Amino acid sequence: MTDAAPLPGVLEEIADIAGRPTAIALALAWGGREVHIPKPHYLARHPDHPLARLLEAEGTAFQVADYLGGSGVYLPRARRACAVHLAAAGATPGEIAARLSLSPSAARRYIRGVP
Questions:
Q1: Which residues pair with residue 36 across a beta bridge?
Q2: Which end of the chain is more exposed for a tag (fewer CB within 10 A), N or C?
Q3: What is the DSSP string of 45-93?
Q4: Quick one: pLDDT at residue 3?
Q5: Could you tell me the maximum CA-CA distance found in the chain, to the nearest angstrom?
Q6: Residues 3, 85 contacting (CB under 8 angstroms)
């Protein structure tokens, strides 16, 4: 099980500038949606903004805001990468399937790296 497969779309760019854990956190929270990324000065004035709260542990909200701030961005679901990440964190295939709206067999395939 490897967590190094490329991420889809803008998530790979986010991983490059703010780290893979940040990109995965965004995919898990908002994957499959278009989200507005605030500019850094807005985040500074609103520390309770959802982006700031989501990325608090990684401490990367300002990196994402510097890169994408002021724009609407579609965040892909990245189910395969998220499944591998969740499995590495100890989630079972059943838990992963429920969290990512997958069948348990698809979750197991993703974890094993089978297309």
A1: 72
A2: C
A3: H-TTSHHHHHTTTTT-HHHHHHHHTTEEEEE---HHHHHHHHHHTT--H
A4: 57
A5: 45
A6: yes
pTM over 0.85, yes/no: yes
Q: Beta partners for 73?
A: 35
Domain spans of the chain, in order of start: 1-77, 83-115
Residues lower than pLDDT 70 in the chain = 1-4, 115
Instruction: Kindly compute the dihedral angle of the four CA atoms of residues 108, 99, 115, 78, in this order, to the nearest 10 degrees.
Output: -150
The one-character DSSP state at 27 is: H
**CB-CB contact of 1 with 54 (8 Å):** no
Whole-number pLDDT of residue 113? 84
Rounded Cα distance between 113 and 44, Å, is 40
Tokens 């969290």 appear where?
Answer: 99
* Token reading at 99: 């969290």
Which phi and psi angles does 35 have, rounded to 5°?
-125, 150
